[in-house]
Amino acid sequence: MIQRVGQNPALFACGFNAAAVSRHDNPQNLSEEEIQQVQKLQERDREVRAHEQAHIVAGGRYVRGSAHFEYQRGPDGKLYAIGGEVTLDISPVPGDPHATMEKMEVVKRAALAPAQPSTQDRIIASKADMEIQKARQELLSKKAHTAYARENLQEPSETPSTISVYS
Q: Is residue 2 assigned to a domain?
């Protein structure tokens, strides 16, 4: 989910040992069910971290802050990421529709970067699309205004601006 993201690679390596738990490597004497639960948590942890990393890579300079994860403690006592957030700057560039369009294209790519974008990711992509449309309209309006101004300045008016009245 896009809300918060970080670019510190150490953040993704701390807090747990992702080595697979198996029957042969079970110093905590976990039950079969607990081993399966740990394996599912490890898989979810990898998915969440990869998902958020995709946002980070695609979001570039529009990423704000660092990744924030929601954790669950497994039966082995370790914490596993089960959800995450990345913050992207989705504000338009004031007074610059071209820059806004370019920025929103990056935001949209960042939102849709993970293999399986979440509902929130799709909402952010949709908001970026709306900002692109607003910027496009602003550009068209400016072009029309500029064309109108040029036309009126370059062509002489057919109606005189002053009238002489004789009696």
A: no
Q: How far is CA 15 from CA 5, 65, 77, in A?
A: 17, 19, 11
Answer whether residue 65 is part of any domain: yes
Q: Is 148 exposed, middle or buried (0-12, 13-18, 19+ CB in 10 A)?
A: exposed
Residue 122 belongs to some domain of the structure: yes
Give the position of tokens 């602003």. Answer: 138
pLDDT tens track for 110-134: 999 999 999 999 999 999 999 999 9
pTM for this entry:
0.70
Question: Into how many domains does the chain fold?
Answer: 1
Asked if 110 contacts 122 with a C-beta cutoff of 8 angstroms, the reply is no
Q: How far apart are CA 82 and CA 37, in angstroms?
A: 13
Residue 167, domain member (yes or no): no
Q: Which one, of 101, 9, 97, 104, lies nearest residue 52 by Cα?
A: 9
